[in-house]
Each structure stands twice: as C-alpha cells, then as structure tokens.
Design brief:
Distance between the termini: 40 Å
Number of domains: 1
Number of helices: 1
Helix content: under 10%
Strand content: over 45%
Order of helices and strands: HEEEEEEEEEEEE
C-alpha cells in the first residue's frame, strides 16, 4: 500500500501543465462533490466552514442520538497550473445521548488531519490522493495512517449547468477494510454571482450502501471571495441524519504566480 501511494505522488508531479487559473474563485463548497479544477500556480486558497449535524436512531426502543458541531479548514496551494497540494483539518464537538437516565458522552478534538495532492488529467478529469495522519485529538485517534483517493469527472450539460461525478475510496485507519464512495453533483448558475448545487452521494462497504442528499447556494462577493450555505439529510435504517453548514472561501494571488498568468 505504501508503495502504491508513493507511486501516485510521484506520477502526479510529472503531469504536463497548462493554464488552470480561473477569473473567479472555484472551490469544493458548497456541497460534497469536488470539481476537476486546480487553484493555479502560485495561488493560495482558504476554504472554511462550520457544520451542525444530528444522527438519530429511529427505532421505537432507542433514544440514541448524536449532535455534532464541526469546524472545517482546507488550505490549497498551486505548485503548478495543473498540480496542487492541500491540507484538511476538522475540529469537532460531539454530544452522544444514549438513553434516558444515562449521562451524555462528550467528545472533542481534531477528527481529521489530511494531506492531499491533486492533478488535472485533462479538461474534464482530475485525480486526488491523500493520507489521513495521526495528528488527531485523543477521542479520535487511529492506529495507522490511512490513504484515500478520488477521481473527479465533469460533464457540461448546457450553457449554465454541469454534472460532476466523484468516485473513490478510503480506509479508516483502524482496519484494512476500504470504504467506497460516490458523489453526483449538479451545478446551475442562477446569476453572475449566485449558483445552486444539488447532490446525491453515499458510501458503501460490500453490499451495504448509505445514501444522502443535499442542496446548497454559493454567492461570489467578488472574484476572490465566496460565501456558501448548504443543508442535507439521509435515511439509512435504523439511522436518520441531517446537517446544515455555512462557510467562506478566499484566495490570494501570491508573488510566486508569474505576472503573465494573472
């Protein structure tokens, strides 16, 4: 597995390079799907958000539910036009209620510390690979570093709409059983500054599939700043879940970007 991940990192670094810098900021927010773009050489981009979610056991005999508040930060930097590196940090405050008469269980700390690289393969396709590290809070420790990968493909449906498909997999860091995932993300440009996304996504282990749905809005304050709002839900018996998240993304064109590309 380690050799496989190393070979992916090395192969990504030798991909041919063409201009990827866009006039307006492009992010993975709102939503779960990742687009096929890279930020562009010499561009430093921050994507931050906060999410509130609830997971509940809907069986009549159960009172179990979990409430989470998660702060998320993604930092992306373009090494080349078609090659970027990024880091993902998630900090979570979790309250688990088991049943009436029992004390709730509180957990907090970093539950994600992910390092990634992304390369643009062609106009419509990109590939991303990452490693989940052990830099986590004590309530969310893993036994070993865990790889993950994602293939992104974009299909233009019309002048103002597109469909992005993500397929990938990840390991949880505690066993050798991979989990697959998919995302189908529909994007529609409503105005010059306002866009809408609607998604179906899920994960699967062997024959078990969990499906979720969300819808969100993104608003460009200017070419370098985006605000977003997103909400979603899932019903995968015996659990029912929902979430709402809001965030802001901002990019900086650093001095390392050639002037003729600005």
């Amino acid at each position: 597995m380690n050799r496989f991940i190393l070979s992916l990192f090395l192969s990504c670094s030798y991909v041919s390079l063409y201009g990827q810098y866009t006039e307006s900021i492009a992010t993975a927010r709102p939503g779960t799907g990742n687009g096929v773009g890279t930020v562009g050489k010499g561009v430093l981009q921050f994507q931050a958000g906060v999410q509130f979610d609830n997971v509940r056991d809907v069986r009549d005999s159960s009172d179990w539910n979990v409430n989470n508040v998660t702060e998320n930060l993604v930092v992306r930097y373009g090494i080349r036009e078609r090659f970027e590196i990024s880091a993902v940090l998630n900090h979570i405050n979790s309250t688990e209620f088991i049943r009436e008469g029992m004390k709730s269980i509180y957990r907090k700390g970093f539950n994600t510390s992910l390092l990634r690289v992304r390369t643009k393969i062609n106009k419509n396709m990109a590939f991303q690979v990452g490693i989940e590290t052990k830099l986590r809070g004590k309530d969310y420790q893993i036994n070993y570093i865990a790889p993950r990968f994602r293939l992104m493909y974009n299909t233009i449906l019309g002048e103002n709409s597109s469909l992005t498909t993500n397929l990938g997999g990840f390991w949880n860091g505690n066993d050798n059983k991979p989990t697959g995932f998919y995302v189908l993300s529909y994007a529609l440009t409503l105005t010059d500054n306002l866009s809408l996304i609607a998604e179906s996504y899920g994960n699967f282990i062997r024959t078990k599939i969990n499906n979720y749905f969300d819808i969100g809005l993104g608003y460009n304050i200017n070419k370098d700043t985006l605000l977003d709002l997103n909400a979603g839900w899932g019903e995968n018996y015996p659990y029912k879940s929902y979430f709402i998240t809001a965030g802001v993304s901002y990019r900086i064109i650093t001095r390392f970007r050639p002037e003729d590309m600005n």
